[in-house]
Specification:
Blueprint: H1 4-26, H2 31-38, H3 42-49, H4 57-60, H5 63-78, H6 83-97, H7 103-111, H8 130-149, E1 165-168, E2 178-180, E3 186-188, E4 191-193, E5 199-200, H9 205-215, E6 222-227, H10 230-238, E7 243-245, H11 252-262, E8 268-271, E9 280-285, H12 288-296
Parallel strand pairs: 7-8
Antiparallel strand pairs: 1-2, 1-6, 2-5, 3-4, 6-9, 8-9
Helix pairs in contact: 1-2, 1-5, 1-7, 2-3, 5-6, 6-8, 8-12, 9-11
């Protein structure tokens, strides 16, 4: 009996660590620094460097592994990424490669041929499981948040009530299916501050706008709220976005729904404020990274 986790431990992790150790050394890190970053001993780094650790050629040759290792090496070497963030990205790739028919699933089924002949509806490597879907959303959201955190000047776009970048599952029906930042994103002395990692069910306001748009025909899966500025609307229009105003003093879901029914191509919603209501712009897009990139382009 062999679990897919054993494939990960015995073949995937040694291969990725070996590749990453080499990339970090190529970027000028000492053996001691590589050991600290990877959380392993210097002797282990030495073994990786001298090829004393067996690696899996199929994992080495996978383009996604190659791309991720290069991205992690760049981020870790420059200090733009923490070891914890790198770990999360590796975990996400592992889950992707475990899905039905993908690399780790293939290696697992080759190690345990009986899995392929299992005659029930249960699938060990089900790519459509709720857990995997949720992890994909959270991974996208983490990448989007990292873009915002590394964008100089983003703090100037954060409204007084705070911003939130949210993303939802494909079949989202309520706020529990939408992930966001607990406590929102704030400007703290000119610095973009994300208080904690994204979770599901923690955003109500931005999630409501996104869900209302989806309920009335939008195919957007992510959204962000930023401070209102007519110049920003003009820039978004120049970029090809369709902007539409809605009334936040009434029921938000109904107002957004009515607005998108009149303008089905709308990707930007805005309201100019009212008694006790701060004017805001909401940018929608297919995923969190795209929304973050659009926001970054405004600076």
């Amino acid at each position: 009996m062999q679990f897919v986790e054993e494939i990960v431990v015995d073949e995937f992790l040694p291969t990725v660590r070996s590749l990453l150790a080499g990339e970090l050394r190529d970027r000028g890190l000492t053996q001691s620094e590589v050991a600290d970053v990877l959380g392993i001993s210097q002797s282990a780094v030495s073994k990786y460097a001298h090829g004393d650790v067996t690696t899996n050629d199929r994992i080495v040759d996978d383009e996604r592994v190659e791309t991720l290792v290069a991205e992690l090496a760049d981020g870790l070497a420059s200090g733009d990424m923490t070891p914890v963030q790198a770990l999360i990205e590796i975990e996400v790739l592992i889950r992707e490669l475990e899905t039905g028919g993908d690399l780790l699933a293939q290696l697992h089924e080759e190690a345990v041929p009986e899995l392929a002949d299992h005659g029930t509806s249960f699938r060990v490597h089900d790519p459509e499981s709720d857990l995997r879907t949720s992890e994909r959303v959270l991974s996208s959201l983490r990448r989007g948040l990292r873009i915002l955190e590394n964008t100089s000047g983003f703090a100037t776009l954060i409204p007084a009530v705070g911003s939130n970048l949210v993303a939802c599952t494909p079949d989202a029906t309520d706020v529990d299916d939408v992930a966001g930042v607990p406590g929102r994103i704030f400007d703290v002395k000119g610095q973009t501050t994300v208080p904690s990692g994204p979770e599901f069910g923690v955003s109500e306001h931005v999630a409501t706008v996104l869900l209302a748009a989806r309920d009335h025909g939008s195919d957007a899966s992510a959204a962000i709220n930023i401070a209102y500025d007519p110049d920003l609307l003009g820039e978004l229009t120049e970029q090809g976005h369709v902007t539409v105003e809605f009334d936040e003093e009434s029921d938000v879901a109904s107002s957004v729904g009515a607005a998108i029914e009149e303008n089905p191509e709308a990707t930007v919603f805005y309201q100019t404020g009212g008694m006790g209501i701060e004017p805001l712009i909401y940018v929608l897009g297919p995923d969190a990274e795209s929304v973050a990139d659009t926001t970054r382009s405004l600076l």
